[in-house]
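Whether sequence alone determines local backbone shape is best considered at the level of individual chains. For completeness, the protein is quoted in full, as a sequence line and a line of structure tokens:
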Amino acid sequence: MRKARHVAARRGCFFVVAGPSGSGKTTLLAEVRRRTPDLSYSPSYTCRALRPGETPSQNYHFISRTDFEQMIERDEFLEWAIYNGNYYGTSRHHVQSLLRQGKNVIKEIEVQGMKQLNKKRRAIGGELVSIFILPPSLTELKRRLNDRGTESQAKLRQRLKTAQAELKSVELFDYLLINRDQAQASEALARLISWHST
């Protein structure tokens, strides 16, 4: 009588996407999620104010700064960062629970958070795949931010300064994706996710 072989359940992949403000990462993420309905999304926790059109728990989990800092103390984040004066973080429990179920997870993070995740690759509970979205040029990045019409000139200058600093961190990521054309870039991102998911 042959012994039954134990087959380990497949763990999911954790896809993290980052890039400077104006690179188009949020739009690409939304398109890939639309095209890949079985891809789970993990909203970030943040202490910033709710913006028009945002839905709590769908876009972000909005909590107070005090609550966020208490979660840091309890080690409840896989990664966290301060961006433009506000905290952002990834729930350890939510992501690891999905990965244990064999689900693939995608989320947007800050470059600061990627430094933390790279130190925790083995402890995450699934394959970590990191993608950095690049604009075609700083000139194009500035145009995109200007076209938003939502920033003061001071905020715009700060975002461009932050973007230049973030571009120096591309070596932290597994893949670089230049977003020259939204349709082509979303197709490339979807193919990358599909390749790692099989």
User: Anything to note?
Assistant: Helices lie at 25-35, 65-73, 92-100, 111-119, 138-148, 153-166, 182-197. The two ends are 33 Å apart (CA to CA). The domain at 13-197 is CATH 3.40.50.300 (Rossmann fold).
